[in-house]
Design goal:
alpha/beta
């Protein structure tokens, strides 16, 4: 069966977009895949081990009592069923990164797609509110420790106000595009988990210390309703699968890394939660836990269970401060993760016409301000409710969302009969149908969550009522405005999106072949591409052209419109023809990602690039200590290959006089080959200017120059050697640049920490030279 035809869009011919053509200059459009198994696992763990671990131990004990660990295990098992569905849909589908909303919309009839997106948005709004309220509790506790007599009662109003401030701060940082790379967040998450494990060990060691009786008193009768209620309230602890799904198009080998990451995160999170619950409940005075379900700690204030337990940990008073600080860091990470997921979901729904277009409108900071603002408003309202109510509301949303995901597995499996790579849910449709029934049953049972001292209305009743209101508002909008808009878009023609033309197959790269690599920010510098093509032709190499479309971290890579990359496709196509005209194998690629220099360095490593060629037009901010700019300087210092920086300003062709500077620290090795490549075609004269301080140095430089002269003579290139006795190399270089067509230098390392940066003299020569400058930095 042949490949489906690729769309022709906006005047771009089909062969201009990779996928259906074998044309070497077809532009490939890719989402950068730079995340591994560790990154995926930590991203999910960061969402799972966040607020719930610090805030819900009291609520879980209030309903399940001594069997709280059994409730935790049941919640993990229910989440594992959802994990199987996410593992299949996020590991082997071209639209994997869309998450539940995209899968349901493609698999099930209307309004299933809208409802899944609406539930996902609402669930992440509630999860954000839970994290913010927990931050309020812990920050207030840090500043003003609670009176033990006031615990397990209503929170003071300042807790909600602090939560609102924290929530607003996080929203502002999203709007300001202040984000850490996913890989950096993974390392921070690992550090956070290790700190929590450290607290667990301290708590477990504290169990053997003296004092009044502590821990769960013996007794109690196992009943199904308390067990299931505990699982329902804890279900939110394992809702990090959406984060994995939204990252799946950035994962290397998603068919294996995504399923492993999902199950590893679930397993790791379960053991961390179980250890934490044992450490906390084991240090609560037994008098507060006895008499369940009418115990004192069961009356209200779920978050206060932790505050009662901390004073009995060893290492006071430092452990208490450390505990609260670690809790703040953990919950703030979860808050950012959930806010980002909520913004991404609302943005995607708006682009598909299921929410107002304002939610997809990106402002000057490249962030959808309407989506950020409404997500903040929704979470801000919820922080004035109790911890239990917010947690149940979030659990209801994710239980409903996961039910839709299970149904999507059944529908897509029947429709596609997929046999490609990736995880597959066993025993379809039996397992998904069982999971759907289980999710709905758990959601219905949460209605029975009992009233608490800090809540005039039973949290289960209030959360169910709010959930129904949320669904009613969504369906009312969808059937009145959103549905008509989405249907109108679908009948007005199929506008092509970036996701429609993404190259999904991996390129076959001959790693043993010499490769010249040009990352391009703009498409006007034909001289740079011609230089790369000449070098590639002389070395029988491949010429690789790359343009990176940088997008904010809180938006999915496929969120950009096709028209945004349309000009990039045309520009790369035009430049690729330069290499094609010189008979060079040319591979133009557009990559979509979050950090330009990271993408460039990853490409260099993955493709075993031999020579990186970059352009600098001579622009420089006065007073900037970096000569080229942050990205170029960073690449010069870190690229694991030879690097050419070509200042093209003022370049005139054909070249007539090429000047190579030689000195005791400026070798001819490497730069001589480049000079011959350029001079041979333009019939230019190469002048080797040897800068020496004494005759002995001059003799050594003459010997090196004479070897170059012999090679140049064999290739018919005229060489004019010249010796200048001077220690003012910078002045002599600038003097020689006045009449030169091109000045060439092999850079030397200045030493120190910046091992591969240019020296200050080379920086000034590049800046002040009166002609174009080519600098080569050799990789050792």
């Amino acid at each position: 069966m042949g490949r489906p035809p690729y769309p022709q869009v906006a005047g771009v011919p089909p062969h201009a977009v990779a996928g259906s053509s074998t044309d070497s200059t077809a532009v490939r459009i890719r989402v950068t895949r730079d995340l591994g198994l560790f990154d995926v696992t930590m991203a999910a763990v960061g969402a799972m081990v966040g607020a719930a671990i610090f805030l819900l131990v009291g609520a879980a004990y209030a309903v399940s009592g001594p069997f709280v660990l059994a409730s935790l295990a049941l919640a993990a098992c229910i989440a594992a069923l959802a994990g199987t569905a996410y593992a299949e849909l996020a590991s082997g589908r071209p639209d994997a990164s869309g998450g539940a909303y995209v899968w349901v919309r493609n698999a099930l009839p209307d309004p299933s797609g809208f409802l899944s997106g609406w539930l996902s948005w609402g669930g992440h709004i509630a999860a954000s509110a839970l994290s913010a309220l927990g931050l309020g509790v812990f920050l207030v506790e840090l500043v003003r420790p609670s009176d033990p007599a006031t615990l397990f009662g209503p929170n003071p109003v300042e807790v909600s106000l602090v939560a609102l401030v924290v929530l607003g701060t996080s929203a502002v940082l999203h709007f300001a595009r202040v984000h850490l790379p996913t890989r950096a967040l993974g390392r921070l998450t690992l550090g956070k988990v290790l700190l929590i494990v450290g607290l667990i060990l301290v708590g477990l060691l504290s169990l053997s210390s003296g004092g009044p009786p502590r821990g769960i008193p013996p007794g109690g009768v196992t009943r199904s309703l308390p067990l299931v209620l505990g699982a329902g309230i804890l279900f939110i602890a394992f809702q990090g699968f959406e984060v994995v799904a939204q990252l799946s198009d950035q994962v290397k080998h998603p068919e294996s890394s995504v399923p492993r990451g999902v199950f590893l995160a679930l397993l790791l999170s379960f053991f961390v939660y179980a250890g934490f619950f044992l450490a906390i409940l084991g240090n609560v005075p037994s008098a507060m836990l006895s008499g369940w379900p009418a115990c004192r700690a069961c009356l209200g204030g779920s978050e206060d269970m932790v505050l009662v337990s901390i004073p009995n940990f060893l290492g006071q008073p430092y452990v208490r401060e450390a505990f609260l600080i670690i809790g703040v860091v953990s919950m703030y990470g979860a808050l950012n993760s959930n806010l980002t997921a909520a913004i991404r979901t609302s943005f995607s729904m708006a682009r598909d016409g299921l929410l107002p277009r304002a939610f997809a409108r990106i402002g000057g900071r490249e962030v959808p301000p309407a989506a950020v603002a409404l997500t903040f408003v929704g979470s801000g309202i919820l922080v004035f409710l109790t911890i239990e109510t917010i947690a149940i509301l979030a659990s209801l949303a994710f239980l409903g969302l996961f039910a839709f995901v299970h149904a999507s597995v059944i529908a897509l499996r029947r429709r596609e009969r997929r046999s490609g790579p990736g995880f597959r849910v066993p025993l379809v449709p039996a397992v998904p149908m069982f999971a759907i029934a289980l999710n709905l049953a758990i959601g219905a049972i949460l209605w029975n969550f009992p009233a608490r001292q800090d809540s005039p209305i039973a949290p289960g009743v209030l959360a169910s009522f709010l959930g129904v209101v949320w669904l009613a508002v969504g369906l009312l909008y969808h059937w009145s405005a959103g549905g008509r808009e989405a249907r109108g878009r679908s009948t007005n023609g199929s506008a092509t999106e970036v996701r429609d033309i993404l190259t999904t197959a991996e390129d076959r790269v001959e790693l043993e072949r010499y490769r010249v690599f040009l990352p391009l920010r703009e498409f006007e510098d034909e001289n740079l591409v011609e230089l790369g093509a000449r070098i590639a032709r002389a070395r029988n190499a491949e010429l690789s052209l790359l343009h990176v479309v940088e997008i904010p971290r809180n938006l999915p890579p496929k969120a950009i419109r096709f028209r945004y990359v349309d000009d990039r496709i045309r520009g790369l196509q035009r430049l690729a023809k330069i290499g094609e005209a010189l008979g060079v194998d040319t591979r133009p690629v557009v990559k979509i990602g979050h950090k330009v220099y990271e993408i460039i360095l990853d490409t260099i490593r993955e493709e075993a690039v031999n020579l990186l060629v970059m352009s600098w037009r001579g622009d420089r901010v006065e007073g900037d200590r970096r000569v080229f700019g942050s990205n170029i300087d960073y690449l010069i210092e870190n690229a694991p290959c030879d690097v050419i920086v070509f200042k093209t300003q003022g370049l005139r062709k054909p070249l007539k006089r090429i000047v190579i500077l030689s000195s005791p620290i400026w070798s001819l090795e490497g730069i001589d080959d480049l000079a011959l490549i350029l001079a041979e075609e333009d019939r230019a004269v190469v002048e080797v200017v040897s800068l020496a301080s004494d005759p002995a140095e001059a003799d050594r430089l003459k010997q090196e120059s004479s070897r170059f002269e012999g090679r140049a003579q064999e290739r018919g290139v005229a060489v004019q050697p010249k010796v200048v006795y001077s220690t003012q190399w910078e002045s002599e270089a600038l003097r020689e640049s006045v009449e030169a067509s091109l000045l060439m230098i092999r850079a030397t390392s200045p030493g120190g920490l910046r091992k591969f940066a240019l020296s200050p003299v080379e920086d000034r020569i590049v800046k002040l030279a009166k002609c174009p400058v080519l600098i080569l930095r050799k990789w050792v």
